[in-house]
Fold Endonuclease/exonuclease/phosphatase domain-containing protein.
Amino acid sequence: MKKESSKIFKLLQLNVLNFVYFDRIIDLINKENPDIVTFQEVSENNLMRSSSFADTSAYTGKDYIQELTNRTNLKYGHFFKSWGVSFGNNLKCNWGVGIYSKYPIVDYNYFYDRQSPTYYISEKDRDPFFMSEDKKIRDVYSMQKPSVFACALLSVDNVLVKVYTGHFAISELCTETLQRINQVKQIISFIDNQKLFPTIISADFNMTEDGLSISTLKSKYTYLTPNIKNTLDRKIHPAFDQNRAIRGLVFEDLKVDHVFGKKINLIESYTDEDSHVSDHLPVIVKFGIDI
């Protein structure tokens, strides 16, 4: 039996794929009307995509962060840089995670698992760091890139709510890695060493549910996405494409986005499989907080 709550929230969790489908994401937000959004693979502008191919012809300078707040009712937000690129003629773009909300963000903090760099990309060369044809090489580079784990403190009707998000390095089949286990230990320490408020932990863990990392988080916090089986878009993500399959494997389901909570009452969680806004599915969690 669900505990009665005096305040109901809707959370949208999404890896936005550098805002490739930015207008679709705006439409999704306005349709679902979430109170809180956690984003990964946030790109400040579209330089990130064009610079991967050493070609800035598609660069428009559009500020995705500002436009998102202008075109939705998520008027409060903070972008947390993981790393950045600088390309040729002083064009720059940072890449990271974001937390956005209808409610004021009164404080925020974060930690990195290593120093946050800016990568300088040649104007002439296709950069293997980002776009190697060999997925194994991309995965190795992914392990070397820094991760940021971010926290925003929201003020909701005079009650404080903490929201955490992050984006973790990928392994070839989204299986367990020692790096991931160590990151989860850091996360738990980071959360437990702060004052306890109603808490949401929502991230692209790049990790399936059966691994030690997710099991460890389940032992500490309430798992808010228990009935979801898949969080990747079947029409966009290469895991479901026979022609681009990973080691010849085509998955039926792959769940790598997870949401946890503390002092939270789960109402329901589900995915939107029809909006096609990214290579990940939007994960939506409705929950209550006793206020």
